[in-house]
Amino acid sequence: MSIPAPRDPVRDWARSGVAYLTGRSAGPPLIPPGTAATVARALTDQIAEATAGGVRLDGAALLAERAAFTGHRRAGATSAGGACRLLPTADGWAAVSIARPDDPALYGALIECGELGDDPWPAVAGWLRDHTGDEFDERAELLGVAAGSVRPPRAAPASATDPAAHRSVAGMLVVDFSALWAGPLCAHVLGLAGARVVKVETPSRPDGARRGNPEFYHLLHAGHRSVMLDPTVADDRAALHALVSAAGIVIEASRPRALRGFGLDAEEFVAAGATWISITAHGRASNRIGFGDDVAASAGLVAHDAQGLMFVGDAIADPLTGLTAAALAMTAHTRDSGVLHDVSMEGTVAATLTGTHDVTAYPDHGGWLVDADDGAVAIAAPRARPVYGEAPKSGADTDDVLRDLGIPR
């Protein structure tokens, strides 16, 4: 992504809400390393330009928006949402997510401990202290858990775009297979720009975000339509293929083999002219999975103090990736066929890790200030946009959507 050089990343971090979410619960907020808040603001500037001013968002504020709905606060080495922890290994640190119902059993297999009981954390932490990050990474990938060792920041170019080559997505059909935050944020931005968004879920893989904060879910999905299709049923499988064939943009956030199991192959639809946004934790070539907190930490986006490492923001890899994907979807391409954008959450974060900021927050009238290039600036709490309308219920209008699109079922 072609991003202007940051003018004052300290100010951008302070105003984003991310700094407010970074640090120990009983300590001051911290300014994170890198330029992710500045990059996010530049991305929404590109989106505003692509829409001739029709969609104006504050990308930096979007990085912390979920916490404004959930009330999440900074918690040091525990993620703001509570499901991920930074734990010492024999040679460094690892970010470990235990968020899904089957995760305790998977971690029991990973550490060869069998049943971990109601609290798996002590056993996992004890195992990590005696094993290296490389050994943990290998086992985590093999067992399909969202985790990874924390590595030094690595240079990683983001997906290239030409800000001058924007295109309108107004009226375009967007088929959204994604879940949680990154992909739905991309679809949300495209919907604001006038695209027609259809959310696709399957009976075995509904969007887990439906069980989260309802207002935040409504914010991302209001105005979209929803279908529930079962790829094991012949008519539904055919409808899936027809729906994707009619789309100008497809958003998916799973490993490539998942949709191939549905009979959907990205390259086939790209050859027919579609834009395919593939969001993965570590790139399409990797079998690793991840969520926003563990991916950002494993990419090297962490804060630190004398006690050790701390998370930056709330699952920051998700909104940063969602904005990147939306900007890519609004970029014109000159190929005869379509284009497949391989959007790695880890790579997206790593591309922002240029430089650290040696600044200290200080109290002021119950809040916190930090010195930026042009004077002191307040560290803002996360803030949210208003929620208008209701999000669709899962598959509630499947038949109507398919009928409106002329797709038989």
UniProtKB/TrEMBL annotation:
Molecular-function annotations in GO: transferase activity
Pfam family, one: CoA_transf_3
Keywords from the named record: Transferase
InterPro entries for this protein: CoA-transferase_III (IPR050509), CoA-Trfase_fam_III (IPR003673), CoA-Trfase_III_dom_1_sf (IPR023606)
PANTHER family listed in its UniProt record: L-CARNITINE COA-TRANSFERASE, SUCCINYL-COA--D-CITRAMALATE COA-TRANSFERASE
Name of the protein in question: CoA transferase
